[in-house]
């Protein structure tokens, strides 16, 4: 980039009080050029300016049903844990004590926890055991240990967003999803790591670098990295994460667990640190789809019912989207995983057709615009006051959102509105869309991540707001996890997770776990 380009960027950001270094200005000038190219593409395909840019509403509630079938779920899953507690095979105190000891042994090498609530968790576990002894069972998660991504407020301590940037949100009040978990009987073990503010990486040496339990030299994915890594490592049976462009599904794919992004608006975000409010979503990460369904129903506040008929795959109309699997850097294992899933579905009676999601590229661009503009708006004042406290990658990513204009943002929302209608019509012909979650297995931590962005196939479902789940597929030749993604129409959350559960009933890919990582 030329000196004049950097100078223009300097002058532009100075109006917001932001003063990047010379090196950062060069990176931001390159980001501005990419923004302008994306804007040209966006405006060439955008709907008319008068077209409605409204956002999707909340999902409806569902009727009461039967308890989930825990068949073919791995030991340590949320439902098996709840069942063991209900049958008196183990106490909540014993579970919490064991999991905290497991974290003592392995977490220093994985960087999963940001804050552990040992005393509070043990007290809550004792209270749960005493209540059960009196016949007072509070809900489906009574005594079950879980964790929260550190964007989600809990009364035990501050919410830091894995960042040194002040002010940190102090403890004292639970987020609404945290209250719902406690009301269902859950025991909160602590807060877990993430990409800084769900968007980048902190440079603070006091904050942990999260590692993938399959290979600690590899990235666990983001931004809900600690949630997925901790479930995969057996440090807790489930965690609650957030997803703005794939932040639940990407780490779930790379760590070999199941992660669910619900329909936008189905789960409240009250008490959750915002990023991009028109795409931010809260959802579960757990061992399998049945566990995710149980957690989803609690945090969404809908009546509990287990997965539906596992025979749902017979006659299921499946669109298989292989877009991007031939892009540079894609692991052939991603394509093989999709093909293996197609064979399982076809053998179960599903009707398969290879068909790309309509308007996919436009929706991905629109999501980048919305994420960038809204995240910058969320952080603009703090970036001006605390620029150097943000991680170097985070602050450049966030500041690049300043280059989107109001016209770009409004066009992006119109593209989203049109895309929602197109994809909803498409899903009138198909029940689910199957794709890879990511076109690769976990990269090395020192490999750099920007070149991988074209291999993330998640943001289209944030742009539409439709539900999507990542579940483990067959591994690559090195034995590393590969993720499969299923998506469905808005408010079809239960049906989608039933399909994912039925697929997992016919495979064992989700049963694989890494060898324990023990501190030496």
Question: What can you see in these coordinates?
Answer:
- The protein has one domain (78-358, 424-509): Alpha-Beta Complex (Amidase signature (AS) enzymes).
- 40% of the residues lie in helices and 10% in strands.
- The longest helix is centred in the last third of the chain and has 27 residues, at 360-386.
- Helix 10 (332-347) links the parallel strand 7 and strand 8 (351-354).
- Helix 2 packs antiparallel against helix 11, helix 2 (22-45) runs parallel beside helix 12 and helix 11 runs antiparallel to helix 13.
- Strands 1-3-2-4-6-5-10-11-9-7-8 form an eleven-stranded mixed β-sheet, with helices on both faces.
- It has helices at residues 3-14, 22-45, 78-86, 92-110, 118-133, 176-183, 225-232, 249-255, 289-300, 332-347, 360-386, 392-400, 406-429, 459-464, 493-505; strands at residues 113-116, 145-149, 187-192, 238-243, 258-261, 281-286, 317-320, 351-354, 432-436, 468-472, 483-487.
- It is of the alpha/beta class and 520 residues long.
Give the SSE layout:
Layout: H1 3-14, H2 22-45, H3 78-86, H4 92-110, E1 113-116, H5 118-133, E2 145-149, H6 176-183, E3 187-192, H7 225-232, E4 238-243, H8 249-255, E5 258-261, E6 281-286, H9 289-300, E7 317-320, H10 332-347, E8 351-354, H11 360-386, H12 392-400, H13 406-429, E9 432-436, H14 459-464, E10 468-472, E11 483-487, H15 493-505
Parallel strand pairs: 2-3, 2-4, 7-8, 7-9
Antiparallel strand pairs: 1-3, 4-6, 5-6, 5-10, 9-11, 10-11
Helix pairs in contact: 1-2, 2-11, 2-12, 2-13, 4-5, 6-9, 7-8, 9-15, 11-12, 11-13
